[in-house]
Amino acid sequence: MPSSGRIHTLDMTRGIAVLGILLLNIFAMGVSYYDYVPFSTPSWGDKLGQLCYYFLLRDRFITLFAMLFGVGLYLQWHSFAGQTHLLKRRLYWLLLFGLLHRIFVWPGDILFNYAICGLILLRYLSQPPQQQLVMALRFIAMGILLCIASSLLLYDLEPVTRESSDFLDSYAAWTGAYSDRLQMQLDLAIADAVLFPLTYMWLLLGLMLLGCYGFRQQWFTQGLSRYRHWLLPASLLMSAIAYPIGQQDNAHLQALAEALLSLAAIPMSIWLIHCIAHSQAQGRFAQRLQAVGKIPLSLYLLQSLLGTWLLRDLVPQLNLTLHWFGYIGIALLGCLLQLWLAPLWLKFFRQGPLEWLWRRLAFGANYQPHN
């Protein structure tokens, strides 16, 4: 535990996670019932994009961000000298932010789910590191098994393409009147609140607890001392197994592929943590990533506002014409905007606007945590 100051490698890792999340979310910011919807005749670019999705993107940055959330909660718990009532107040406000975000802006919100898991995680923060690791692995296994079990309730659907009537109807709804979008987002929020404890919650909770364990083992500051050479090959192997399974027109097999991808994301995320900690990057680009990592809440919500405005209101026709790498191009432009905006903001302010509001609502103007 550092005695003072910020952990720059932690900020940098968080910055990469925040930017990487946009590379995944961009596909559903227009027509939010789906991720990327292929054309009836996929181009070579779309086929290559699908490979990138399986091997480099799917669940990678969400997993990394979940582990970082666990680290952040552990650091706050230590800073508040174990005063969990203060952390609960902070998490209740995050839960409200997430609820408002998913109902009024974008239904793919993660803040609500993170707040729920954070409230459960509080009871495990004081455990010894090895006990945290055991519980993390149990939660991850439970989450994967529940996701696979829930897939047995699925039934096969006709493949959705960009030309299909299902997609065109959804496109018309998501780019239509805001009142109609609001109703759909409310419906999705209710469905997720019901299903979340039965499926993804346990995996997310395990990842957060794994992040706590990793921080206490100095993964984020010194890297891993063992098994680091096996992390990336293990991730790529699981992705290679998941890819052909996920290409089948069978809902059960696709759900199995998603479970494998969730597992594949864990060693790749740990490998990335190790690389960042071991490199100790200090250049200008690293400083910009650190700036992004210092105001993640503000930038995460900015991504949703700009992405939904672009793909639902400003140029909704892009949902009909963009190929896979077209969406990625938009996301990369959004990343460049954040890399420029974050250090500029921090030249004049100590916190992001929503970080400041969150702290003020949770603790008031004058509260100072214990060191």
UniProtKB/TrEMBL annotation:
Keywords: Membrane, Transmembrane, Transmembrane helix
Top-level lineage group: Bacteria
Pfam families: DUF418 (PF04235)
Residues making up the signal peptide according to the UniProt record: none
Residue stretches spanning the membrane: 12-33, 53-75, 110-126, 133-155, 194-215, 227-245, 251-274, 295-312, 324-346
Domain DUF418: 216-364
InterPro entries per the UniProt record, alphabetical: Bact_Transport_Assoc (IPR052529), DUF418 (IPR007349)
Name listed for the protein in its UniProt record: DUF418 domain-containing protein
